[in-house]
């Protein structure tokens, strides 16, 4: 094993945490590795809302190019950031065991405002999905754009006159920066593949494919593939208020999927439970059900606005 596996990663603390998980797993098998930090377009432009940039692949394109140009051998991503259609010649090498999937609200002083129907709270997030779900529950609130890595967003929240901001539990807990002033949003369904980490490599790189196969987590892979099939069937990857979560218990796959309009006023949901050996088309079937409920019109509206 004289070959050094070059692991590409974004430069944020969270991205480096994820890349080091893969590095440690490879090192434990006796492979030699090194991290190669690479800036993404999403890390450079921290002002423009993601839906205006065109979010598909915004955090992965630079690493994909480095992979295809043979500057790195493996790229490590938050799986929710990865487009449902990978570039040609790039494949999933391993999906790691899933971490926390929920979102949480980091608040300034207290959460009393959540119970005050006439109070116009100021809430920050860059996620179209979170905005739509929040407006569905709190239509009177004002939503503000919040970009940057986890630490930057926490600093911006502290500096602005906002009541709170929405984060992923996994992102805060993995780098030990979750504030005491935070509550998990049990009612908010996560993004497809939220909380999961994926390593990708070139499809002809049998060395890296074999190295990563040892820590590929099949249960997480099945759950996240179902969620991403739901996303792909509905929209194919544009910036959308689409949520999905699948988990496996006693060989049964439990799935819930949701679609919101951008302003949260229209909402479609489906829940299904199927045997694990019959779950191959679960995400696609659930998405078609949403479309038949009336979701197709909302999808068309969103395409006109954001795609």
Automatic annotation (TrEMBL):
Residues 5-207 form the Porphobilinogen deaminase N-terminal domain. Its cofactor is dipyrromethane. Residues 224-291 form the Porphobilinogen deaminase C-terminal domain. It is an enzyme of class 2 (transferase). One of its GO terms (molecular function) is hydroxymethylbilane synthase activity. Its EC number is 2.5.1.61. SUPFAM superfamilies: Periplasmic binding protein-like II, Porphobilinogen deaminase (hydroxymethylbilane synthase), C-terminal domain. Monomer. Belongs to the HMBS family. This is Hydroxymethylbilane synthase. It comes from Chitinophaga nivalis. The gene is hemC.
């Amino acid at each position: 094993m004289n070959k050094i596996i070059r692991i590409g990663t974004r430069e944020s603390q969270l991205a480096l945490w994820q890349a080091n998980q893969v590095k440690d797993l490879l090192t434990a098998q006796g492979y030699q590795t090194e991290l190669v930090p690479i800036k993404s377009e999403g890390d450079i432009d921290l002002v423009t809302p993601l839906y205006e940039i065109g979010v598909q692949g915004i955090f992965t394109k630079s690493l994909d190019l480095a992979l295809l140009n043979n500057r790195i051998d493996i790229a490590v991503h938050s799986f929710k950031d990865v487009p449902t259609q990978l570039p040609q010649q790039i494949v999933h090498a391993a999906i790691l065991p899933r971490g926390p999937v929920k979102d949480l609200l980091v608040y300034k002083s207290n959460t009393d405002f959540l119970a005050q129907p006439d109070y116009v709270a100021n809430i920050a997030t860059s996620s179209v999905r979170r905005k739509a779900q929040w407006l569905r529950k709190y239509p009177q609130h004002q939503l503000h754009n919040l970009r940057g890595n986890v630490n930057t967003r926490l600093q911006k929240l502290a500096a602005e006159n906002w009541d709170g901001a929405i984060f992923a539990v996994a992102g805060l807990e993995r780098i030990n920066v979750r504030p005491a002033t935070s509550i998990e949003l049990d009612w908010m369904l996560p993004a497809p593949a939220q909380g999961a980490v994926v390593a990708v490599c070139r499809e002809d790189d049998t060395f890296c494919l074999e190295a990563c196969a040892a820590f590929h987590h099949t249960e997480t892979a099945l759950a996240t593939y179902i969620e991403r099939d739901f996303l792909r069937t509905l929209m194919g990857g544009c910036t959308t208020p689409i949520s999905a979560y699948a988990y496996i218990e006693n060989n049964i796959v439990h799935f819930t999927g949701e679609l919101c309009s951008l302003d949260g006023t229209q909402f479609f949901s489906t829940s299904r439970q199927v045997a694990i050996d019959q779950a191959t088309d679960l995400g696609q079937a659930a998405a078609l059900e949403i479309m038949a409920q009336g979701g197709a019109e909302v999808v068309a509206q969103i395409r006109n606005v954001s795609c």
